Amino acid sequence: MNSSSGLLLDTHAWIWLMLGDKSLSQELVEQIELSAQQSLLYLSAISVWELAMLVAKGRIQLKQDVMQWTKSALNVPGLQWIPLSPEIMIESSRLPGECHGDPADRMIIATARHLGVSLLTRDEKIQAYGASGYLHVLPV
């Protein structure tokens, strides 16, 4: 990966990073840190919604209230929060090729394409979409 191009974290990658989960290899953590040092580390606004929904459904348990956890997790130096602009939302409905059906994942993909950055994800459907040439994916 060309670290100067930037890196968008998929929701699960952001959560794992903030929780110190070992699902991210040391090499990936170093790439994330390098992107952050260059202020080229990004998170889509839809990831905050996905996290809140996971907590609400009991699929993730945090040691503090989701609002407090999120405020801390968005305050990481070098992490830039990307709002869902009209361009990104429209792009999510016009993605080329066979793309993910999940609306949140489509918005994350559209965000990465809009920014022209790599997407760090474990999602196999997104990885397959990247293999089709529509998106640069950094697999977890």
Could you tell me how far the N terminus lies from the C terminus, measured between alpha carbons in angstroms?
Answer: 13 Å
| The CATH homologous superfamily | 5'-nuclease
The value of Rg in angstroms is 14 Å
Low-confidence region ranges: none
**Quick one: how many beta strands?**
5
What is the percent of helical residues?
Answer: 40-55%
Mean pLDDT metric: 93
Summed up, the helix count is 7
Shape: globular
Just give the CATH class. Answer: Alpha Beta
Largest sheet: 5 strands, parallel
CATH-defined fold name: Rossmann fold
CATH architecture: 3-Layer(aba) Sandwich
Query: Which structural category fits the helices and strands?
Result: alpha/beta
* Count of distinct structural domains: 1
Q: Output the strand order for the largest sheet.
A: 3-2-1-4-5
> What is the string of SSEs from the N terminus onward?
EHHEHHEHHEHE
Strand content: 5-15%
Task: Report on this structure.
This protein has 140 residues and is of the alpha/beta class. It has one domain (3-139): Rossmann fold (3-Layer(aba) Sandwich). It is 50% helix and 13% strand. It has helices at 11-19, 26-37, 45-56, 66-73, 86-93, 103-115, 124-131, and strands at 7-9, 41-44, 79-82, 118-121, 137-139. Strands 3-2-1-4-5 form a 5-stranded parallel sheet. α7 links the parallel β4 and β5. α1 crosses α3 and α5 (86-93) packs across α6. It is globular and about 40 Å long. The mean pLDDT is 93.
